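Q: Got a minute? One more chain.
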Amino acid sequence: TTRHQYTNKVCRSDQIGKKCVALHDYLKGAPFSDYQNSMYFDRFLQWKMLERQPITKDTFRQYRVLGKGGFGEVCACQVRATGKMYACKKLEKKRIKKRKGEAMALNEKQILEKVNSRFVVSLAYAYETKDALCLVLTLMNGGDLKFHIYSMGTPGFEKDRVQFYAAQICCGLDHLHQESIVYRDLKPENILLDDNGHIRISDLGLAIKVPEGEPIRGRVGTVGYMAPEVINNERYGMSPDWWGLGCLIYEMTAGRSPFRARKERVKREEVEKRVQEEEEEYSDKFTEDTEAICRALLTKDPKQRLGCTVEGSAAVKAHCFFKNINFKRLEAGIQEPSFVPDPRAVYCKDVLDIEQFSTVKGVNLDQTDNDFYFKFATGCVSIPWQHEMIDTECFSDLNVFGPHGTRSPDLDWMTPPEPPRRSLLDRILRRHLHSYNQMTTSPTSKHNVHIALYTLRPKI
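A: Always. Here it is, folded:
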């Protein structure tokens, strides 16, 4: 009976496969030709041409400094044309060259381009200025987990909050691992909260793609959070990330990391020895299932560690620690967080407390550097850009056609484009603003996006 059911299943899937191939062959024929000759294809080309417009610093308004990265500051920015807010991570060119960070910077940018998850920060734009390479990322106004663990009262969180964050981190790691990417730098500073209390994994500078069937080697990460196999310079796959999740669950619960007390002065070698040889201690803050998942994730042998067996992330999600988490709702973004940041609060250090970067001297940029910048500064990333057009309602406002399914004027190549409409105030001030023409910047409203669409009419 089992063999008969299996045979039927294979036959059905084979029939479905043949039908899909037949449908694909049909659609790429006459239907696609009809689509190419339609106004809908013209509109599609307009949007794609707008998407591919050059991106420069004038595309954005720059706001206050939010923090500091490895190669430069992070500030808030806003797309002039749509009003969408982002975080701009600036990588100073001379600092990158001095620290030989070109490969790391390009690797982070290329990995961010591939990742599209609600639990990992998204890259929307990559561009360059005279002095810096800029990554425009999801804006996370709620601060990082380190700030929330240690600067919001008694260190640590209640269990339901730990569960929620750990589950979202688990989903983020699962997405990265499905793309064969190991993150390698899980720590509270790299987990950011948004306005609604959801978290995302950030700073993918140490992430790397693992070739299938070829474990990698690399002694990278942050002291106190590196897995034993990383410290020992052994080959590994995704195992260091599950160790990192164990460290985070422990720290969110205990209000301290598992192998070093808060602000404890201890040498790197001593911390690494503790990680390799000592068992972490559990206080009465840990419930039975919280301790159980920490022990399972902080298993020294990666072959025995939770998440590293054939079940992978499914085994982690099935652990009794997550019994109150509905992962389907969580992955759909409809699970309510247990903590929502106050929109009036600033969850980070005062700007004056953020250490300033010193000027880099004795570094000259040459043609080789320009070749690297060309690979880096590729403009907007399709999926986040399209989300921006939808979220800011530009798409619904502008993706319109003529009455009764006819072409709108902006899709008629023979019709000259309309001049931008000016209000009475615009006409009065136009004369007085003439002397400032050289200071004009890029489009600043949805109307300007409309004009851009209008002037980008494809000739088919």
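A: Confidence is low (pLDDT under 50) at residues 1-7, 438-444.
Q: Perfect, thanks.
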